[in-house]
Write a structure and sequence with these properties.
By secondary structure, the chain is of the alpha/beta class. The protein has two domains: 214 residues, Spore Coat Polysaccharide Biosynthesis Protein SpsA, Chain A; 90 residues, no CATH class. The longest helix has 28 residues. The protein is globular, with a radius of gyration of 21 Å.
Length: 338
C-alpha cells in the first residue's frame, strides 16, 4: 500500500507488565509496519515490570533509529491508567491502542489510517486472529473458544468477514482530539475499559468501523484456570460498566448471568420438587450437545478429536466464570458506581 508523503503522525500506545516472553515478537512486528516509521512513535506504559521487559525494549530502541520508542512508568499498574498516561504523552495526531501480548500485521497501522482518512468512523479496528499460548490440546481448545460465536456471541471483532459497523472493537485507532471531547479511559474499570470508552464515543455520535483486512494476532490464556480468572474479571467489571451505561447491554452479555442464575434455581428447586433434577440434567445435556455440535467443524479441520472435549470445556468455563463474576459484583456491592 502506498502512503501519502504527508502521512499523519501516529502514536502506538501499549500497556505492559512482565511481558519479556513476548515483547521481542511485538517489537519486531512494530518495526515491520508498512506505515512510514519516521511518522510512527511507540509509547510503552510499563507497570514497573520485574522481569526483562524494560531492558528488552530499551535494547531494541538503541539498535533501531525508527520508530521512536519511549517507556513511561505506570505506578498504578492498571491498563486504563497506562493508556491515559500514554495518550497524554503522545505527540501523534492519531492514536492506535495495542496490547503487549498481541502482534499487529505489517499493514495494521497503514490500513487503519487509510480507513480513517476515508471517513469510515471515529474508531477504526480489525479482526483478531487468536493463537494458543500453548501447543497442548487444551491450549488449542481455548484459542478456538475465545473466537467462537458460541463463546463470544456477536463480538464482531472476533469473527467478522466483511467490513461493518459495530458497538466496540479491540486495538482501535482514534483521533487524539476525541479524548478531549469524550474523556479518557475510566480508571475505575480494570477491564472493559475499551467497551466503556466506545459507549461514550457512540453516545457522542461517533461510529466504530471494523475492517477484517486489518488483522492482529492475540495469544489466548494457556489453561482453564487462567481463562476462568480472566472471564470472572470480565463479568465482574461488566456490571460496574453497565451501572454507568445500562443501555449498552447486549444479548451476548446477558446470557451467561441468566444461565448461571437458571442453573442455581433449578438446583434449589430439586430440594422441593424432585422432577427438577431431571430438568437440570436435561438442560446440561442439551447445553453440552450444542457446544459439541459447534466444535465438530474445528475438530475436523485441525484433525484433533480432543477438541470435541476441550472446546466445550473452555466455552463452559467462559460462560460460568463470566456469569459468576457478574453476580458476585452485584451481591458483594463492590461493583456499585463510586
Amino acid at each position: 500500500m502506498l502512503v501519502n508523503a504527508m502521512s499523519p503522525r501516529v502514536s502506538l500506545i501499549i500497556p505492559c507488565y512482565n511481558e519479556a516472553a513476548r515483547i521481542d515478537d511485538l517489537l519486531r512486528a512494530i518495526a515491520a509496519q508498512t506505515y512510514p516509521l519516521q511518522d510512527l512513535e511507540v509509547i510503552f506504559a510499563d507497570g514497573l515490570s520485574t522481569d526483562e521487559t524494560r531492558e528488552k525494549i530499551t535494547g531494541f530502541a538503541q539498535t533501531h533509529v525508527q520508530p521512536e520508542i519511549r517507556i513511561l512508568d505506570n505506578p498504578k499498574k492498571i491498563i486504563p491508567a497506562a493508556l491515559n498516561l500514554a495518550i497524554r504523552a503522545a505527540r501523534g495526531e492519531l492514536i492506535v491502542r495495542m496490547d503487549a501480548h498481541t502482534l499487529p500485521a505489517p499493514n495494521y497501522v497503514a490500513l487503519s489510517v487509510s480507513a480513517f482518512d476515508e471517513g469510515r468512523g471515529q474508531d477504526i479496528g480489525g479482526v483478531i486472529d487468536v493463537a494458543p499460548s500453548r501447543a497442548s490440546w487444551m491450549g488449542r481448545s481455548i484459542a478456538v473458544a475465545v473466537r467462537h460465536p458460541l463463546g463470544v456471541g456477536d463480538a464482531r471483532y472476533r469473527w467478522a468477514k466483511e467490513p461493518c459497523y459495530a458497538d466496540t472493537v479491540a486495538f482501535g485507532l482514534y483521533e487524539r482530539s476525541i479524548f478531549e471531547k469524550i474523556g479518557y479511559y475510566d480508571e475505575s474499570l480494570l477491564v472493559n475499559e475499551d467497551y466503556e470508552l466506545n459507549a461514550r464515543l457512540r453516545a457522542s455520535g461517533g461510529k466504530i468501523w471494523i475492517d477484517p483486512t486489518i488483522r492482529s494476532t492475540y495469544y489466548s490464556r494457556p489453561d482453564l484456570g487462567s481463562l476462568a480468572r480472566q472471564y470472572f474479571t470480565y463479568g465482574f467489571y461488566k456490571y460496574r460498566m453497565l451501572l454507568q451505561h445500562p443501555r449498552t447491554l447486549r444479548w451476548r452479555q446477558a446470557l451467561p448471568p441468566l444461565f448461571v442464575f437458571g442453573l442455581l434455581m433449578l438446583l434449589l428447586l430439586t430440594a422441593f420438587w424432585h422432577p427438577a433434577a431431571w430438568l437440570f440434567l436435561a438442560v446440561i445435556l442439551l447445553y453440552l450437545f450444542i457446544l459439541m455440535a459447534g466444535s465438530i467443524q474445528e475438530a475436523i479441520r485441525q484433525r484433533a478429536p480432543l477438541l470435541l472435549i476441550g472446546i466445550p470445556l473452555a466455552i463452559t468455563t467462559m460462560h460460568l466464570s463470566w456469569g459468576c463474576g457478574f453476580w458476585w459484583s452485584i451481591l458483594s456491592g463492590t461493583g456499585r458506581k463510586e
